[in-house]
Structure formats: structure tokens, C-alpha cells
Amino acid sequence: MMSHPLIRPRRNRRTPAIRSMVRETSLSPTDFVLPMFFHEEPVDTPIASMPGVTRWSLESLVREAGEAHALGIPAVVLFPKIDESLKTPSAEESSNDDGLVPRAIRALKAAHPSLCVITDVALDPYNSDGHDGIVQRDGAAEIEVLNDETVEVLCRQALSHARAGADVVAPSDMMDGRVAAIREALDDAGFTNVSILSYTAKYASALYGPFRGALDSAPKEGDKKTYQMDPANAREAVRETLLDEAEGADMLMVKPAGLYLDIIARVRESSVLPVAAYQVSGEYLMLKSAAAGGWLDERAIVLESLLAIKRAGADIILTYYAKQVCGWIG
Ligand code: PBG
């Protein structure tokens, strides 16, 4: 006689209706943040290292952000390409109230008051060294990225974003103590309502290459391993989580996302704060090129990649696919 299993998990997978009832995770436009590139020029430029992604003029940035918001996306995060002539070792341009980012924030908030505007706080687009912090040479063979000196500049940068009307500032630099310092600087200036989304566990990943191509922001010398985390480490992400929470972060971020699902889950378990995950430029490029070659079904693989990030514990997902996905799930 054939033996019959008493318990049959397949019953819960039998029809689309049953599957939809037992589904544990779903994607909605409100899960997404759209990262946007822009520059001073009056034209829109396709980004060679990220097919399908554009570096917008200020005018187009406002229009495109409005379209994303109309699809239900609550927030954008801004990445400026700064003119080479404005880059200096101390990154003064990063806190210029009339600089590209403050002007973009004001234009976005004027056109779309309900859009949440998030800014990236780090020095790499402004720094002639291409590092997230201030570089010290000292004649030594190895360059040093200074921590406390950098944090002071980051505070000035965050303040200039707040003065322009940013809702959320997102320090992506990985300097020690920057969340507490930025919180204090914001509060002292009366910006108690401006939130901090901290890049809590940002790894020194090979997946940022296409982004640096988009902004011409690659380090001129050395790498980012003295401040971004070692991809080999997971417990260290918990340490950063506890610190950021104690320092007053409102939301935490893990970056990259797809290769770091275990980190998203660890951070999720270690904190009650909302957790964001950034599907970065290299992840985008891997998905895009596999799809462009006809090797993978773009819609299916992108939705699966995002569902996995959400399932791992992310409440918020930054992805270059945000607008397209809204069309797919809408
Ligand atoms: C800059 C910054 C980077 C990214 C976001 N903010 C690059 C880096 O750290 O070198 C990468 C995003 C992406 O690859 O999509 N601090």
C-alpha cells in the first residue's frame, strides 16, 4: 500500500486565491524611495554605467520626482553631480546654501510639498579627493580619512539641507559619532523635526562602481575600507545599529541590499527602528544587464529581488527600479 502524508503544505499553494491569502510579504509603492541623479546643466544625460537611469537637469528632476510621487512613491533621495571646479580638499561647497542640492530641495518642496525629500550627507561629490571625508596626507604612503574634522563638515552640510527644507538627512559617510553630532547640530538650530536616516551598516562593496561613474565621485587614491564595513562582518552591523539608535537615528539603513539579506535580518532583530535597505547601482546593473541580454525575465527577477529584501526585514527600499515597479504592481 502507498503511504500518504498526513500533512500536505501544497494545499496552501493550490490556487491563486489561496496563495494570496497565505502570502506573508507584499510590495507596495509606499515601500519605495527613488534615488535621483542631477546636475547643473540644462540637459538630461543618460548615465552610461547605469542603462535606463538619467542624470537630470534641475527642471527635469522636479518633473520626474512629481511623477514618482503621483505613482505613490513617498520619497526621493538626491545625488548631485558637482562641477569639478567646485571640488576642494575641505569640500566647502557641501554646505553652500546656494549650491545645487539646496536649490533642488527648495524647488522640489515648492512643487511637491507632500513629497518627502531625503538628502545624502557625505563629502564624496564635493571633495577633490573623492572620499566621503577629509583626507590627510602627512607625507605618509597611506592617506588618512579624518573622523572628527569630517563630522564637523557633515554637520554644516546637514544644516544647509535642513535650511533648504529637507525632511530627512541621510549620512552615508560611516564616520564615528556623526549621528549624535548631526542630531545636536540640527536641534541647536531649531530643526527638531528633521529626521536622520542613518546608513548604519554600509559595506565597502564592489557594487558601488556604476554610481561613482554616474557622479564622477570615485576616490582618487586608496579605497573606502577604513570607514565602510568589511563585507566579512555581521556582528559589527549589530554594534553599529546599537550605536546609531543610542545616538538618536530615526531610521537605519543597510547597504547594499541583495547580497546582505542576513544583515537586514540582523539589524531588524536588533532594533525597533524602521529599517531601510538600498538596492545599489551594481545590483541594478546586474539585473539590468541580465535582462537586456534576454537571460532573465526583468519584471520577475526585479520583483523577486525586492520581495526578498522586504522579507528579510526592510520596511523601506531604495531602488532605481522604483517607478517601473509601481507600474508592475499597480
Ligand atoms: C556616497 C554614496 C555612495 C552610494 C550612495 N552614497 C557611493 C560610495 O559610498 O562610494 C552608492 C549608491 C549606489 O551604488 O547606488 N557616500
Question: What does this protein look like?
Answer:
The protein is an alpha/beta fold and 330 residues long. It has one domain (27-329): Aldolase class I (TIM Barrel, Alpha-Beta Barrel). The chain contains 11 helices and 12 strands. It has helices at residues 16-22, 58-70, 100-111, 148-164, 178-188, 209-215, 235-247, 261-270, 281-292, 298-312, 322-329, and strands spanning 32-38, 45-46, 54-56, 75-80, 116-121, 134-136, 144-146, 168-171, 195-202, 251-255, 275-279, 316-319. The strands form 2 sheets. The protein has an 8-stranded parallel β-barrel with strand order 1-4-5-8-9-10-11-12, surrounded by 8 helices. It is globular and about 80 Å long. The model has no long low-confidence stretch (mean pLDDT 96). The structure holds ligand PBG. Ligand PBG binds at residues 120, 122, 124, 132, 172, 208, 211-212, 224, 280-281.
Shape: globular
Mean pLDDT: 96
List cofactors, ions and other ligands: ligand PBG
CATH architecture: Alpha-Beta Barrel
Structure classification: alpha/beta
Summed up, the domain count is: 1
β content, as a range?
A: 15-25%
Give the distance, in angstroms, between the N- and C-terminal Cα atoms: 50 Å
Which CATH class? Answer: Alpha Beta
